[in-house]
Amino acid sequence: MAQSSNRQPNPNSKQAKRVSARERIQEAQRQEQQAAKRRRLTVVAVSAVAVLAIAGGAAVAISSAGDDKSSAAEPAAPTALVVPANTTGPDGTLVVYGKADAPHTLQVFEDFRCPVCKTFEATNGDTVKKLADDGTVKIEYHLAAFLDKPLGGKGSRTALAAAGAALNEGVDKFKQFHDVLYANQPDERQDAFGDVNHLLDLAGQVPGLKTDAFVKAVNDRTYAPWATKVADAFSSSGVTGTPTVKLDGKPITLFSGNRAVTPEEFTAQIKQATGAQ
Length: 277
Hints:
Number of domains: 1
Strand order of the largest sheet: 1-3-2-4-5
Number of helices: 9
Distance between the termini: 29 Å
Oligomer: single chain
Radius of gyration: 20 Å
Mean pLDDT: 81
CATH architecture: 3-Layer(aba) Sandwich
CATH superfamily: Glutaredoxin
Strand content: 5-15%
CATH topology: Glutaredoxin
Number of strands: 7
Shape: globular
């Protein structure tokens, strides 16, 4: 998104850091799409071996083909898929916020550890929410977890699983928790979102969210398998970077040069695309 220039930017400037972050995120997304393809091929191959083994009367133990490796110091993630209430889409991998009869759909593709997503949310998050609350659009969230691999840690996936626990409490609770996560996003080199206790502390900023069921689901990582499904769906979406926003499938411009578009510019694009006055 950065424009070319003959003047070399100061590598320590905020502008250079934002550009670098976007480039790292785009490269990470390309790597994750390739990894997802390899995982799908591995699953097909292993499944074929399992069928042959079962036919021969043997028992075969199949380990996960995913990239994540659980630490010996923490409990293993559950293997049974539990889909939160209030999901939609294939296998419950989509989260929709807004009025069901809204005439337009705003697709938002994000990763909770993505610093450029935080910039988008800080600049235009309130505008997006207003457009949903007034019935102009409904928001369809496509959530990713590809940054865990290049940055190290498990914050994207752990935050996504916690967001599933919030969604199980209600779509409004999910949206509020989503906004709290971006408002408190750690430096991309840190993995604070990988700590469930930190996520539970942040959940305390959402009134009524920390029910016994929510706390148990976050501690037990109940929605970790669901988070993997959601992340895999993102990897198969064809989107090559976060944040990406589409209105009824058509991309919306989020950055002009090295700055985020203003709320007025963002709203103008939505009005032009929808024919609203």
